[in-house]
Amino acid sequence: MGIVSPGFHGRRSAAAPELPPGQYLTEDFPVLTAGPTPRVPTDAWEFTVVTEAGQRYAWSWADLMALPGQTVTVDLHCVTKWSKLGTTWTGVSLDTLLENVETAADYALVHSYGGYTTNLPVEDLLDGQAWIAFKYEGEDLAPAHGGPARLLVPHLYLWKSAKWVRGIQLLNEDEPGFWESAGYHDYGDPWREQRYQGD
Amino acid sequence: MARLVERRAETPSAQTLVLDVPDWPGHLPGQHVDVRLTAEDGYSTQRSYSIASASDGSRLELTVQRVDDGEVSPYLADVLAVGDPVELRGPVGGWFVWRHTDTAPVTLVAGGSGIVPLMAMVRTRRAAGSKALFRLLYSVRTPQDCIYADELRSRARDDFGLDVAYVYSRQAPQGWPGEPRRLGVADVNTHGWPADFQPACFVCGPTGFVETVADILIALGHEPRRVRTERFGPSGP
Amino acid sequence: MTPFHGPYDDGDYADGNALAGPLREIFAVDLTAASGRCAHCGAEGPVALLRVYAHAPGLVARCPSCTEVVMRLVRGPNSAWLDLRGATSIRIPLGVE
After folding, report:
1. Is B195 helix (H, G, I), strand (E, B) or coil?
2. Does B81 touch chain A (CB under 8 A)?
3. Identical fold, B2-92 and B106-231
4. Strand, helix or coil at A124?
5. Which has the closest alpha carbon to C70: C78, C81, C62?
6. What is d(CA B214, CA B185) in angstroms, rounded to the nearest whole number?
7. For each successive 10 residues of chain C (97 residues), what is the average pLDDT?
8. Per-residue pLDDT for A14 more than 80?
């Protein structure tokens, strides 16, 4: 720890007991981005799943809207140490999207418009743990926060919840994504504080 | 580690922090320092600030523009007290620097608090007795936003070979010829050195300002390698 | 996947001068004045002119010509990770102050 700056608190509230270790509560919604923000029109938007056998499944925006949606209230934990509690999202569960996909793959590599990628085990996408979310607090999801649609996997650090999601590649071997190949943890469980490789 | 020795108001929103840094190795004008703030519970954050002063022993000056919804600048502007410690790393940066041994003419173009590293060049020029010819073009929103106003006035009078010109983008002073406007080609053409003189050009300010001025300089025939830029933007997560 | 060709908003970025401190922690010489070549489009220029996205888990430096990633730097408590696969080469001036 560095030299304490007398009277400095930062733009955040005090640490709250219900937060994962090392996290601080924030009321606003910081925008983190590793590059330019794509503005993907919904009429050109497409979400694809490609299996380990090369089989491709695709959904247009209209296809996604026709699927049963869910509204969930979840906590967000960013690896840069802010947490935001009680956020409400509407989206389609990955259980629904992957229901008829024929796969035995264990790993997923998520791709975004703009080139971002992140990896996670397929089992973390299932059983009501992950959504393709397109509304935040009842409003269309803004491009700065990943709109028109982002992955939402709130039980892992937020870098796994890829903004501007466009597809999932199902793989037999784990393949590290954008941050996972630059020092960040392969899995990223906030409650076990898995921030960096080796944590 | 540094300690705050003194603070000076430059404008209603900008302050100069005078720091004492034992073992400071000296710096080149245009270099910056990274300031790290740490709360008692270990939370910390970092920002970059340009050095405003010429190299002078263990004394170092930073000028901080207060960003009202910022996390660091309100602390530096309002909370940090004389005698308090400041953790900083530096000097850093080797691109946006002027060396007083360089004799080529120099065009400086500043937007808002982009004046800070350019002021370090102006001060170093005088301190080192350099005879390099300097032209400074300084764009501010209103006369009240002009940082170092008094010093620039006296230097323009006393520092031989330094010319200073202003552009006011929102509100001009009483009796100013012309309307407030954004800096344009004519300003750079009139108040900077012609490309034929092969001047070193330093441009610092907000992103849009820097891009506009750099484009103007290139269009006026300056070689890209002689146009050095530094833009503001986020410097920490 | 094929790249998405836009439109894009540039978003909030700093320039490569902001890399000076974090890189100086790792290297004995300043790297912002070094000249690099983008592995994607071949553009060449000083590290100081890269576009640096800093509101992120690490520093992401992109080519000003093609916006592809040239350099990534992640700083953990005990290690730094530096990824330079987006640069084919970097020429570092030596023997200056």
Report:
1. helix
2. yes
3. no
4. helix
5. C62
6. 11
7. 81 90 93 95 96 94 96 95 95 76
8. no
Write out residues 22-51 of C within 8 Å (CB-CB) of A: none
Domain boundaries, chain B: 2-92, 106-231
Rounded to the nearest angstrom, the minimum Cα separation between B181 and chain A is 30
Distance CA B96, CA B230 (A): 7
Which tokens hold the place of A178?
């954008």
Could you count the other beta carbons within 10 Å of the beta carbon of residue A20?
15
What is the pLDDT averaged over residues B197-211?
Answer: 95
In the numeric block, which tokens belong to residue C93?
């001036």
Q: Residues 16-75, chain C: which have Cβ within 8 Å of B?
A: 16-18, 20-22, 24-25, 29-30, 32-33, 46-49, 52, 54-57
Interface pTM (ipTM) of the complex? 0.92
pTM: 0.91
Q: Tell the CATH superfamily of the A24-28+36-192 domain.
A: Oxidoreductase, molybdopterin-binding domain (3.90.420.10)
* Torsional sign, CA B152, B153, B159, B162: positive
Does the beta-carbon distance from A35 to C11 stay under 8 Å? yes
The single residue listed with the structure tokens 């060449």 is C44
* Chain-chain contact of C8 with A195 (C-beta, under 8 angstroms): no
Return the ∠ at Cα A137 (arms to A134 and A142), rounded to 5°.
50
Measure the CA–CA gap between B87 and B78, rounded to whole angstroms.
Answer: 17
In this structure, CATH architecture of domain B2-92: Beta Barrel (2.40)
**C54/B28 touch (CB, cutoff 8 Å), yes or no:** no
Mutate which: A8, A26, A31, A179, vs B, most B CBs within 10 A: A8
Instruction: Quick: pLDDT tens for B161-178.
Output: 999 999 999 999 999 988
